[in-house]
Amino acid sequence: MKKFQFKLEQLLQQRIKKEEQALLEQSKAQQECDVYQRQLDGTKQRYEDVLQFSETALRPDETVRTLMYRDQLQILMDRQKRQLQRAQDILTVKQRETMKACQERMILEKLKEKKLIQYNELLAALEQKEIDEMATLGFGRDAF
Known about the structure:
92% helix; mainly alpha
């Protein structure tokens, strides 16, 4: 009997590649989220530093400059929060795509396993049939 061959092997390989691509895109989206988070954390730290400095500022011109700088930092933080939120939304979409690709691959792999088990059972049945025939022929020769 010929060797086991899964008829949907090409499709399985395509699904594996699709899953790898989805994982790569998810990784890139995660890296982008991390970059935005670091930027936002840095801006928050500068904002806190300005708040501390404004408490110690003695001259009115320093106070005005720190207030203006603080306002600019607040605007920047708001923009960075929006960028981070967009990046997190994209990451969520990429995670869903990865999960879907993984499920599609797993379905085909389970089908392949099932077909292999069926093939092995058929092979065992054919082998047993052959052994039974040989035993029957041997018994028939010994009887006469």
